[in-house]
Design a protein that fits this description.
Shape of chain B: globular
Order of helices and strands of chain C: EHEHEHEHHHEHEHEEEEHEEHEHEHH
Helix content of chain C: 25-40%
Structural class of chain C: alpha/beta
Strand content of chain C: 15-25%
Number of strands of chain B: 8
Number of helices of chain C: 13
Number of strands of chain C: 14
Largest sheet of chain B: 6 strands, parallel
Oligomer: heterotrimer
Helix content of chain B: 40-55%
Strand content of chain B: 5-15%
Chains: A alpha+beta (463), B alpha/beta (327), C alpha/beta (326)
Order of helices and strands of chain B: HHEHHEHEHEEEHHEHEHHH
Chain lengths: 463, 327, 326
């Protein structure tokens, strides 16, 4: 048995509102599964569970604000335990979940433990309704709603049902939105909703269903006097889903707040990358191809180690101050293929060798693009690096990612005339910039940091 | 100053009996409040009983009464049974407002008792309207409107006096001046503490009376009410009194000195009246004991009735919000 | 049936009520000699005398409270508050007294008072004379709230409000007093408590009331020229709202635009949208749109005032959005 507690999702978080349960008693969970959404000052954050087992009891209702550390749920060792516990609690007269444990999905892959769960049949066959959120998620993820058992009121398939199904399936490419009425129209016209092309706004409405049915918009008497073109939406390619728009909004909100609240100062310094690139070439010759390093990883290593020397840059602003943090969790800005970006963190980056950093970085990029980043990875960064060299720019002026207090930017590697030991030569160089929070540090300390990055990059073998 | 003398034995007995009913009931209220049986706000009238007893005793049964949130005594005097008052405070279905009003909103419309009103000053326009209806319907009755000194701060006080005077309406304004607007002393909330100056500004005749002298209150209010009835125009009486207990149960009384309270308790209207009756030979120990016994029995029965009362079924929660659902 | 203005319709109803029931009287600021700030009661003083057409002091709280008290005392008062803006001075009486009295007394008292007030912007009278606060009153249990958007309703609602045993707040639209329309002075009037379909159409429901109704009807005609047939639902009774009618219209059209001159945040339209989502969620084929007043105290300058409040163009655009156009 284990308790699932209200997590501390950031420095200064004293409490959170449990907004949504993604599991219910009887659900099998594995370490790392997203089990709930918690609203904090920073917004709604998905939180993961840290134990394997079966949810035996939810202790906190949705919408409840509880202090950090409050038990939110009890996770049983396995299904049998949970059932026994539920029975005990019912016997003891406590409020127990009245329903039998209901199923996630029947084709859950064997998990190496006996979490037998039985599918509850939907009353009267297939659920008549699905919630729009469930439908949207199902379309985004390519889940066939008809295969799911609804656990909502009156057998409605809810978002949680779809989420459970997602855990066992591969996401699909399509990300359409569907109006609540469209599925009923599709059913009436005998149209397969999955085959309907969305309208210009990337959503499927009744009009798209009707177009797919190859008929005039409606069999309404007044339809005759209308021009069909005004009703029938041209079947076009789906536009990028609105998840992108939502991310854009989230970035907009965070960056606007950052720029409005944080007094940024900027420092730039051009660094000779000659020793680093030479070392890299030699080092990579001794490495198998999959383990070869890129120069970007050396930059990450240099930042992670340099910030130890100027610890005030490795901190979270708590509203009044930003005490330096012990661990260096290096946020890495990763742009997404469809637009937008996120900055998950490589934990304890200062203690990792370039090789370890390389594999951590590759893993992060892969999981970011697969949408498999955990909430904790998004909130734990203590300082972030952004590299825009691939985009051909020389200098980056980053905006700090709150509550962090500093961000480091790298441009592209440029060959420049460079004087070394009194002699002019051509060297690969890179411009490192620092955006830092003037409430926390001053330009003098920021300068020391960039100087430390430069110094470390001159001795890459020590990184 | 002592209390004025009652006219006879029966008069003496009636006044004392009524004042004691209020006091003993409220003492019981305070007790059961601490046990959690009464909740919400509980404003006790202890010390001010002579006002309600004298004033309402001087009115005709047909006269309308609009009172404040400190109105247990007024309801009792108007004949609302003690059990119905106590049950209301218990939030029971057998309360006089079926548990919807509580201590501050006792109503008995069949007795022309138009309620305890808990927005200071808010009852005055209602009283003016009741009098307007009387005037338009040709009913010759007085609407007695009780309010505290705090209400004289409110715009509605001035508006209501003006309108009653302008339209010549039969309202008797009865200002229960206990010296405090909640915790703010009169000279801290009024620029002119002579309250009868205010009705004068609207041409309303006014006088003041010692609110600790039940016989004087009765005599004054009887005269003023009869004048309103005859002339059909508003009049104003300031009744000077004092609240012996806190404003409500949750009041640390930081705003007044305990010695001040003790000083005023020397003019306890019940003690003053009892002493005067003894002097006059109108009440003896035996009679006093009999009254106390009778009142104690009534209070005991009232608590019993309240305890035994049913609670309103939850199914009736939203009933009596409107009189008629829309068609 | 005759042609009459909205103003004349209100007057006609008050005359009919006062002729038929001795208990009915009118009081308010300048309702007598002046003839009413909007000339609604012009001529009534001569007809009914100063006892029943009562000019009051400028004391909204107390004359409204006196109306409540008179209703408790057996009369059927019509309290005219010149505009909703001034009714804020009477909120204590309306919300704390009229609305609570029946429940607070355990059902002993009812308060048959009709409180009429003009509402809305559009006359360049700036921030303190242009409020639309129907939503405030519509949120208070114990009150019934009507809003007249047609000439006939201006008459019918006065009579229905006076017939009702509870406090009724009637919103008359300031800019509509001069509007002409058909008036049947013998029509039954009990229908005003239900929403009315003012125009039929299958493509989108335009839900409106009071000041926004004529604009909404105009928008529906404009949409028709583009091949979109809108159904226009006039809410009429803002409390209680006609849930059945709301659900029924969306079942027909699957799309809705709610037009309401109260401010966007906390608007009555917001309540309507919530009810559509609660009651007709699976009928919706597009997000519900709101056309409300921009969140600004109503400015004086005409172009700014026009831009602040719902307009035909904004209604048309919102309707088109629900149809995936624009």
């Amino acid at each position: 048995m284990a308790e699932f507690l209200m997590p501390s999702l950031g420095a200064g978080m004293e409490s959170g509102v449990l907004t949504t349960w993604k599991v219910k008693p009887g659900d099998a969970v594995s370490r790392g599964d997203i089990v709930a959404e918690v609203e904090t000052e920073k917004g709604i954050i998905e939180v993961e569970v840290f134990d394997d087992g079966v949810v035996s009891e939810l202790l906190v209702d949705e919408g409840t604000k509880v202090p950090v550390g409050t038990p939110l749920a009890v996770i049983g060792g396995d299904g049998a335990d949970a059932a026994t516990d539920a029975g005990r609690e019912a016997d003891a007269g406590r409020e127990a979940e009245p329903e039998p444990r209901t199923a996630a999905v029947a084709d859950r892959p064997p998990a190496g433990r006996s979490s037998q769960v039985e599918a509850r049949p939907a009353p009267g066959g297939r659920a008549h309704h699905d919630t729009p959120a469930a439908r949207q998620l199902a379309r985004e993820e390519g889940i066939d709603l008809r295969a799911l058992t609804g656990t909502g009121l009156h057998g409605v398939v809810t978002r949680a049902d779809v989420l459970r199904a997602i855990r066992t399936r591969q996401p699909a490419e399509r990300e359409d939105r569907v109006s609540p009425y469209a599925p009923r129209r599709a059913e009436a016209l005998g149209v397969e909703l999955a085959a309907v092309e969305p309208g210009p706004a990337g959503a499927i409405h009744a009009a798209q269903v009707e177009a797919a049915a190859g008929r005039a918009p409606a069999e309404k008497p007044v339809a005759a006097k209308k021009t069909p073109a005004s009703k029938t939406e041209p079947a076009t390619k789906p536009k990028p889903a609105d998840a992108q728009a939502a991310m854009r909004r989230a970035i907009a909100a965070a960056m606007t707040r950052s720029k409005q609240e944080i007094p940024h100062y900027y420092l730039a310094h051009t660094i000779d990358l000659g020793p680093a690139t030479e070392w890299l070439t030699a080092e990579n010759e001794s490495r198998p191809v999959p383990e070869r390093l890129i120069v970007g990883v050396l930059l990450l290593a240099a930042v992670a180690k340099a910030v130890r020397e100027v610890p005030e840059l490795n901190a979270h602003w708590t509203g009044e101050a930003a005490p330096p943090l012990d661990a260096v969790h290096l946020g890495v800005a990763i742009s997404l293929r469809k637009g937008g970006l996120i900055a998950p963190a490589i934990h304890d980056a200062d203690a990792k060798s370039p090789g370890e950093l390389m594999s951590a970085f590759k893993d992060l990029v892969k999981r970011t693009r697969a949408g498999a980043i955990r909430g904790s990875e998004l909130t734990s960064g203590t300082i972030t690096v952004t590299s825009l060299g691939e985009r051909g720019v020389e200098t980056v002026y980053p905006i700090i990612n709150p509550p962090q207090v500093a961000m480091v930017g790298f441009g592209k590697v440029v060959e420049r005339p460079w004087v070394v030991d009194g002699e002019l030569g051509v060297r690969p160089t890179i411009t490192a910039t620092l955006a830092a929070d003037h409430r926390v540090s001053d330009g003098h300390r920021g300068g020391l940091f960039l100087a430390a990055v430069e110094r470390l990059l001159q001795s890459p073998e020590d990184l | 100053m002592s209390s004025s003398a009652p006219s006879d034995r029966s008069h003496a007995r009636t006044l004392l009996h009524q004042m004691l009913r209020i006091r003993r009931l409220e003492e019981k209220c305070a007790e059961v409040y601490t046990q959690g049986k009464i909740r919400g706000f509980l404003h006790l009238y202890i010390g001010e009983e002579a006002v309600a007893v004298g004033a309402i005793g001087a009115l005709e049964d047909e006269d309308a009464i609009v009172a404040t949130y400190r109105e247990h005594g007024h309801a009792l005097m108007r004949g609302v049974p003690m059990g119905a008052v106590m049950a209301e405070m218990y939030g029971k279905a057998n309360g006089c407002s079926r548990g919807r009003g509580g201590s501050m909103h006792l109503f008995a419309v069949d007795r022309h008792f138009y309620g305890g009103h808990a927005i200071v000053g808010g009852g005055l326009p209602i009283a003016v309207g009741l009098a307007l209806a009387d005037e338009m319907l040709g009913r010759r009755r007085v609407t007695a409107c009780f309010f505290g000194d705090g209400a004289t701060d409110e715009g509605e006080f001035h508006e209501a006096l003006n309108l009653a005077a302008l339209w010549k309406l039969p309202v008797l304004f009865l200002c229960e001046n206990n010296g405090y607007a909640m915790g703010t002393a009169l000279d801290r909330h009024e620029a002119d503490v002579e309250l009868i100056h205010k009705p004068a500004a609207y041409g309303i005749p006014a006088e003041k009376v010692d609110g600790m002298d039940v016989v004087a209150v009765e005599r004054t209010v009887r005269y003023e009410a009869e004048t309103v009835r005859e002339q059909g125009t508003p009049r104003f009486v300031e009744l000077n009194t004092y609240r012996f207990r806190a404003h409500s149960m949750f009041d640390a009384e930081l705003y007044r000195d305990k010695r001040e309270v003790e000083e005023h308790k020397k003019r306890d209207p019940i003690a003053l009246f009892t002493a005067r009756c003894r002097e006059e030979g109108l009440l003896d120990d035996e009679a006093l004991e009999a009254i106390e016994k009778e009142v104690a029995e009534e209070v005991r029965a009232a608590v019993e009735e309240a305890e035994a009362g049913e609670i309103e079924p939850l199914a009736t929660l939203a009933s009596d919000v409107v009189s008629r659902e829309v068609p | 049936m005759k042609r009459a203005t909205y103003r004349e319709a209100v007057r006609s109803a008050m005359r009919q009520a006062m002729s038929g029931d001795e208990r009915v009287f009118l009081m308010g600021e300048d309702v007598g000699r002046y003839g009413g700030a909007f000339a609604v009661s012009k001529g009534l003083l001569e007809e009914f005398g100063p006892d029943r057409i009562r000019d009051t002091p400028l004391a909204e709280s107390t004359f409204t409270g006196a109306g409540i008290g008179a209703a408790m005392g057996g009369m059927r008062p019509i309290v005219e508050i010149m505009t909703v803006n001034f009714s804020l001075l009477a909120l204590d009486q309306i919300v704390n007294n009229a609305a609570t009295m029946r429940h607070m007394s355990g059902g002993q008292i009812n308060v048959p008072v009709l409180i009429r007030m003009a509402t809305g912007a559009g006359k360049q009278v700036a921030a303190q004379h242009s409020h639309s606060l129907e939503n405030w009153y519509a949120s208070v249990p114990g009150l019934k709230v009507l809003a007249a958007g047609t000439v006939q309703d201006a008459r019918d609602m006065v009579l229905a409000g006076l017939d009702d045993p509870d406090p009724v707040v009637l919103f008359e639209t300031m800019v509509l007093y001069g509007m002409e329309g058909d008036l049947d002075e013998e029509a039954p009037y009990d229908g005003v408590w239900r929403a009315a379909v003012r125009r039929e159409g299958d493509d989108v429901s335009l839900i409106s009331y009071g000041s926004s109704l004529p604009k909404t009807l105009e928008a529906a005609e404009a949409l028709s020229k583009e091949g979109v047939e809108a159904e226009v639902l006039d809410l009429r009774c803002l409390r209680p709202l006609d849930q059945q009618a709301l659900e029924a219209t969306v079942r027909r059209t699957h799309r809705a635009v709610v037009v309401d001159e109260t401010w966007h945040t906390g608007s009555l339209a917001g309540e309507v949208v919530a009810r559509l989502v609660e009651g007709a969620f699976y009928e919706l084929d597009a997000p519900v749109e709101r056309v409300c007043t921009v969140e600004v105290p109503i400015p004086y300058a005409k172009h700014l005032e026009d831009a602040a409040i719902p307009s035909v163009a904004r209604i048309v655009t919102a309707a088109q959005r629900t149809l995936g156009k624009g």
